[in-house]
Write a structure and sequence with these properties.
Elements (H helix, E strand, L loop, with lengths): L1 E2 L5 E4 L5 E4 L5 E4 L5 E4 L5 E4 L5 E4 L4 E8 L4 E8 L11 E3 L5 E3 L3
Parallel strand pairs: 1-3, 2-4, 3-5, 4-6, 5-7, 6-8
Antiparallel strand pairs: 8-9, 10-11
């Protein structure tokens, strides 16, 4: 799925989904495993509610990624804010085993 207008809203539920939005204040959500989400507009939000996903957001954006924690038998979500703690705009991130955001090797 792709959208270029401001305030775009995209959602996908299948595994390996790919979503992209270039408008400011866009909202992207995916629930399928191994999905890739990219929102390059300012102040956009990307949220992957499944495991092994990758995401990027533009300036002042927010990224939410989920992971399964086997020892707890539950899902955990990690949140990153572009411009804080080394998170860069328009760079894809994934979670490591501890729920930390790491740059993806493309």
């Amino acid at each position: 799925l792709a959208a270029s207008g401001n305030y775009s809203q995209l959602a996908a539920s299948g595994d390996y989904s790919q979503l992209a939005a270039s408008g400011n204040y866009s909202k992207l959500a995916a629930s399928g495993n191994y999905s890739q989400l990219a929102a390059s507009g300012n102040s956009s939000i990307v949220c992957a509610a499944s495991t092994n996903c990758k995401a990027s957001a533009g300036n002042n954006g927010c990224i939410v990624l989920a992971r399964w924690v086997e020892s707890e038998k539950r899902y955990r979500a990690s949140v990153a804010y572009v411009g804080e703690n080394g998170i860069k705009p328009n760079v894809f991130y994934e979670l490591d085993g501890n729920g930390n955001f790491v740059e993806c090797e493309q």
